[in-house]
Design a protein that fits this description.
Its EC number is 3.2.1.52. It comes from Kribbella karoonensis. Belongs to the glycosyl hydrolase 20 family. The chain is of the alpha/beta class. The protein has 15 helices and 19 strands. Helix 3 packs parallel to helix 5. The longest helix is centred in the middle third of the chain and has 16 residues. Bound molecules: ligand TNX.
């Protein structure tokens, strides 16, 4: 099972077997989760599995005293009960139950039983509240259906944030009614020069809804002041010389910047952050801030507080890459650390915390899912080094950055940049098997983290991914089941 639960006790001689007449009991708060689970299990088992009020053979209850995402799962010969204090907690428990069932339970066509769960009593709660994955939909665009599939896969590992990187040099991917050319023109291409794409408001709302149904919160990123060529190309008025650059379909970074001393820049951002925030149930909006190599540093320090204020004005907290910590930050800012454990990045993380910000950790040499596994990996980049499965798992979020108190860490996020990834099979290849390890670092207690034990639990996920049709990398250091 991944992530490893807080406490688990085997109940010998108490194997549960799902029978054709089984029922799924629920209270109203967990009904949607029960329906979702029943739908999945009906396909593979062929059993009717009616969902009913109150107790069932499998019972989902929100009547527990657990807080937030915590839950308990009890499986014995008579049935399975998942108890939490919230629907979210029940959902996390159901992802555990899915992993306790045979892999073939994930099949979309009818399979032969038996459908057994070894007797167990589990008590579980997360180490961190932020356990994210980032998908870059700018360098290559991914459709709503593709992102939904991505959500299906990551939510099985208790990932609870989907950071969508929605604007960059190569494309603008979210509709903004007051600046329509951002998507009409700025979203038209992608890396390599092929057709890009963008989400209409309805499509984006559908993504947010679907993520919510999987207890994943979407964190939208509008990258500023660098990584803005698509916007600058769409609107000449955003450029210092009033001339729009061409659309860009290659993969250099750091050449574009918003014009810091132009009023129109902030009118633009005010509109963009307002329209994006309106579609955001999350309490944060990410304003990027990374690699602004074409923004003079004094300008950068002027820009960040002004842009941050426009996010705060929308009732949202600011999130941004760690470079923003050089500027004064509003209360409640979340700084995303992407350093490779270098002193400059670490100093910015310390500076962030000194200002009262909290940290989400995405060390590039550990958590970047776009880094190659080894020198011959056909996809991905290697500027942060090669990131083997062991390298991505074997670190401790609490001690990664010296002089940062453990209390300042909100959690972890694994970013997937897509310069080299133009379809879902390639995305899956880079995400699996590394993401489950980052998910475990975010969820499981510090004393549960052990590469040797993790390795054998990871091996057991292989058959599950085969059933789900996931194009995972069969890393040779894992003895795949
Ligand atoms: C750096 S890490 C970037 C991205 C690239 C990525 C490729 C960060 C905040 N910015 O613009 O896509 O490297 O690995």
């Amino acid at each position: 099972m991944i992530p490893q639960p807080t406490a688990q006790q085997a109940l010998p001689e108490q194997t549960f077997t799902l029978q054709p007449d089984a029922t799924i009991g629920t209270d109203p708060a967990a009904r949607a989760i029960a329906n979702q689970f029943a739908t999945r299990l009906r396909r593979s088992t062929g059993y009717p599995l009616p969902v009913q009020d109150g107790a069932g053979t499998i019972t989902l209850s929100t009547q527990g005293s657990q807080a937030g995402e915590a839950y308990e799962l009890h499986a014995d010969a008579s049935g399975v009960t998942i108890t939490a204090g919230t629907a979210e907690g029940v959902f996390r428990g159901v992802t555990t139950l899915r992993q306790l069932l045979p892999a073939k339970a994930e099949a979309t066509t009818q399979q032969d039983g038996p459908w057994q769960v070894a007797g167990t009593s589990i008590t579980d709660a997360p180490r961190y509240g932020y356990r994210g994955v980032m998908l870059d939909v700018t360098r290559h665009f991914f459709t709503v259906d593709q992102v939904k599939h991505f959500i299906d896969l990551v939510s099985l590992y208790k990932i609870n944030r989907l950071h969508l990187h929605l604007s960059d040099d190569q494309g603008w991917r979210i509709q903004v009614d007051s600046w329509p050319r951002l998507t009409q023109y700025g979203g038209s291409l992608q890396v390599g020069g092929g057709t890009g794409g963008s989400y209409t408001k309805d499509e984006y709302a559908e993504l947010v809804r679907y993520a919510g149904e999987h207890y994943v919160t979407v964190v939208p990123e509008i990258d500023t002041p660098g990584h803005t060529n698509a916007a600058l190309a769409s609107y000449p008025e955003l450029n210092a010389d009033g001339v729009a650059p061409k659309l860009y379909t290659e993969t250099e970074v750091g050449f574009s910047t918003l014009t810091v001393d132009l009023d129109r820049t902030y009118e633009f951002l005010d509109d963009v952050f307002r329209e994006v925030a309106e579609q955001t149930p999350a309490e944060v909006v990410h304003l990027g801030g990374d690699e602004a190599h074409s923004t003079p540093h004094e300008d950068y320090l002027t820009f960040v507080p002004k842009a941050a204020q426009l996010v705060v004005k929308q009732g949202k907290r600011v999130m941004g890459w760690h470079e923003i910590a050089d500027a004064p930050l509003p209360a409640g800012t979340v700084v995303q650390y992407w350093g490779t454990e270098d002193e400059k990045a670490q100093a910015l993380a310390v500076k962030a915390v000194e200002q009262g910000a909290t940290l989400v950790l995405s060390p590039a040499n550990r958590s970047y899912l776009d880094m190659k596994y080894h020198a011959e990996t056909p996809l991905g980049l290697d500027w942060a080094g090669l990131v083997s499965v062991e390298q991505s798992y074997s670190w401790n979020p609490a001690t990664l950055i010296p002089n940062v108190p453990a209390s300042a860490i909100d959690g972890v996020e694994a970013p997937l940049w897509t310069e080299t990834l133009d379809d879902l099979a390639k995305v899956e290849f880079m995400v699996f098997p590394r993401l489950p390890g980052i998910a475990e670092l975010g969820w499981s207690a510090e004393d549960a983290l052990d590469w040797t034990a993790y390795k054998s639990r990871l091996a057991e996920q292989g058959p599950r991914w085969d059933v789900l049709g996931v194009n995972f990398y069969r890393a040779p250091e894992i003895d795949w089941a």
